Amino acid sequence: MTPEALLVIRETEQQRLGKLSNRILCCTVAGCLSGGAGEVRTALEREVERQGRTGEIEVCGTGCMGLCSEGPLVRTSATDVVHTRVTPADAPAIVYGGAVNSVAADHPFFAGQRRIILGNSGHTDPERITDYIARGGYQSLLRAATAMTPEEIVAEVRRSGLRGRGGAGYPAGLKWELVARQPSHTKYVVCNADEGDPGAFMNRSVLEGDPHRVLEGMAIAGLAVGAQQGYIYARGESPLAIGRLKTAIEQARREGLSGDRLFDTNFNFRIDLRIGAGAYVCGEETALLASIEGKRGQPVPRPPYPPERGLWGNPTLINNVETFANIPTIIEKGAAWFASIGAPSSPGTKVFALAGRVKRAGLVEVPIGTPLRTIIHELGGGVPEGYEFKAAQTGGPAGGCIPAAHLDLPMDYDSLQSIGAMMGSGGLIVMDTSSCMVDIARFFMEFCRDESCGKCIPCRAGTVQMHEILARITRGEGVEGDFAMLTDLSGLLRATSLCGLGLAAPNPVLSTLRHFRSEYEAHVREHRCPAGSCKMGATK
Question: Which of 267, 324, 366, 532 is 20 to 30 Å from 222 by CA-CA measure?
Fold first, then answer.
């Protein structure tokens, strides 16, 4: 691939698209496909053919449009509206340009977002590299490879203030700099796509809807830190994301955007895919690296950290999907532009998987620091009628509950930590007054218990004991001493567990004890569940 060849591909595809009178884009990611989007797409293709408009109108699949609870979703470029709950019977009306359950761009769900990472999702075909290139794809890699030094790339990422979107919020530029400084000739770039939190589907949706954005970000990272090999570690439970990644990787190789001498420079970079078996612990970086090496996915003590000694003992840069997806835009628009969005200490946007007891569930992208109230009530439409908002669980099983008293809390790393919660990778589960917070804590502890790798005793045994106590409480068999025991066990796990799973497993218990202690007391002292969801005296 040369700069001139990339320009030709871009202009050729733009000209082709410009000749179309309409482009009908069907959401073809997991959520909409489960609701019949495949049949809708087939019906639309047949209707275009029936009307004899094949050369004028194009029907194609696209990434997540966000409003998952209203799927299947279809967008038409001629009107730029989103049609909701589309069925095959709606195909004639949509092809003719009619309004079928239309949602305009100024709808509260869309108007309240700022889509950067999801900028292409819903607008491009994720299985066509030319579609990505037509919208400016791989221009940032071209600029990085031909007009910037590795040091300049690292400095730009550091100035942007980008923090890792995997959960811990570690400054991405600092991590890149640590890897770049290592003298080793062999280095690796690894994309952590092992998304296992209950209710979380942010990374999967990005890979399903815009895989080339992630590949481009990884290649820029490879250039910056001096790596020639990249790996994407994805869980086998995401077959659609894996399939589209395989297609994207092959397309990039075929077009010369992955491999040797990119853009006629001395930069060589190749990306390969590694598929995990679904172990939650493999989201932890040392367990992930062990799995890539063909070993059992278990964590090891640190230091040394992966930037010093990672894959096969070599310096390794690990970021998650969303972190890499930000890189092309930072290189394109600059660090100052990126830093102007979001909270001063946490620039940029964050993708949240909004799920649970909320009217409009789906994928949203907002500036970091957006109040929780805005996300739930304005974008999500609030909780169902007849109920009131009770809490939101962020960060999956390792996160914490945010009660109604903190609805106006800015959703940024530091604010969440101040109340005992964490942003995590972006799962956001909404609960209303029908939810029992003791049972919620029991559910997440059960998850942690089942997903513990068993390598260290505190996590292996502590999660079992904590789950047994919580289960007894939800059955109405709790005793006063359980409060102190839960607190002591939580402190033990947080102080002595080997990896992040055990260290963070107590968070849902501690946050619910902190904000909803009265519910625990009602279960233990009055043998009743205030929410009416626990079956007292029943085995659970």
Answer: 366
Biggest CA–CA distance in the chain, Å, is 75
Give me the tens of pLDDT residue by residue for the chain, a chain 540 residues long: 899 999 999 999 999 999 999 999 999 998 899 999 999 999 999 999 999 999 899 999 999 999 999 999 999 998 888 999 999 999 999 998 877 888 888 899 999 899 999 999 999 999 999 999 999 999 999 999 999 999 999 999 999 999 999 877 899 999 999 999 999 999 999 999 998 888 888 999 999 999 999 999 999 999 999 999 999 999 988 999 999 999 999 999 999 999 999 999 999 999 999 999 888 888 889 999 999 999 998 999 889 999 999 999 999 999 999 999 999 999 999 999 999 999 999 999 999 999 999 999 999 999 999 999 999 999 999 999 989 999 999 888 878 889 999 999 999 998 988 888 888 888 899 999 999 999 999 999 999 999 888 899 999 999 999 999 999 999 999 999 999 999 999 999 999 999 888 888 899 899 999 999 999 999 999 999 999 989 875 444
Q: DSSP 3-state assignment of 18?
A: helix
CA pseudo-torsion sign 12, 14, 15, 19: positive
State the pTM of this model: 0.94
Residue 174 · residue 158 · CB < 8 Å: yes
The answer to whether residues 68 and 31 touch, using CB atoms and an 8 Å cutoff, is: yes
Rounded Cα gap, residues 261 and 238, in angstroms: 32
Task: Provide the CA 311 distance to its chain's centre, in angstroms.
Answer: 24
Q: Which residues contact 183 (CB under 8 A, 6 or more apart)?
A: none
3-state secondary structure 78-97: CCCEEECCCCHHHHHHHHHC
Cα separation, 189 vs 324, in Å, equals 10
Of 259, 255, 288, nearest to 274 by C-alpha is 288
SS3 143: helix
Query: Angle at CA 531, nearest 5°, toward 530 and 533?
Result: 120
| 57-62/349-356 β-pairing | unpaired
SS3 401: strand
Instruction: Pull the structure tokens for residue 158.
Output: 């550091």
254 to 130, 132, 250, 303, 441: CA distances (angstroms):
12, 15, 6, 40, 49
Q: How far apart are CA 396 and CA 437, in angstroms?
A: 14
Give residue for tokens 């050729």: 12
| Virtual torsion, Cα 68, 73, 77, 80, nearest 10 deg | -60
3-state helix, strand, coil in the chain (%, to 5): 45, 15, 35
Question: Would you call the peptide bond into 384 cis, given omega within 30 degrees of 0 as the criterion?
Answer: no
Tokens of 281: 């612990």
Pairing relationship of beta strands 346-347 and 342-343 according to DSSP bridges: antiparallel
